[in-house]
Amino acid sequence: MSVPVFRVDGGDASSPVVLHVPHSSRQISGPARASIALDDAELVAELDHMTDACTDLIAARAAAAARVRPWMFVNEWSRLVVDPERFPDEREEMAAVGMGAVYTRTSHGRRLRPDDPAFAQRLLDAHFHPYAQGMTDLVDERLAATGRAIVVDVHSYPALALPYELHGDGPRPQVCLGTDLAHTPPWLRDAAARAFAGFEVAFDTPFAGCYVPLKHHGIDDRVSALMVELRRDVYQTEPGGEPHSGLDRLAASLAALVDALEA
Question: pTM for the full model?
Fold first, then answer.
């Protein structure tokens, strides 16, 4: 049975909140694996570094604990197949280190796969474009049902900067909240800061920005967005180790944020 590009976990019909989980999967498609130059052990190590481990579990626990269940949109494939949060063209700054929508370099700058525009386009057609359309459709559905949509990206990042990071020299708080000038209003920033008050929190460091479908970005102020980046040592043994009790604390804080946004 073929695996779909993404999964939508339904929420309450009255909820405008979408928990977006793009980087939690370790699954690699056959064609993508064939294109990757790493051996199996090296690939496991790269997945340990680059996967936002357990973010799907954190989001699911938060959704279950929220007073009104939010919607969830989850990528079923690893970002080493296609990264759905990158721009697929020259707008993407991470292309400078071989990490545009289709990665050609690893987290440590090694060759991941050849520069093959035709193959990259096939991956974009199979993964990136259906994913983007699915997320756009879900946001449109929330707008039609509730008059607004609030996208909360759920990510994680390592305690120590990896070589690929373009802005890795800044502070690395326990919780980084990424914002967008057009789509992260003050009330959303304040709600997130309150929800994660039990942790060290900072805005837009070491990662900034958040996901808004291109159809709505800079155009539709009914769509609000925020990125929640969780430092991995707060909830798991790095890299790629088992989660610990910090996971439950983060899930509870994320649920508190969802509750605040539903009010």
Answer: 0.96
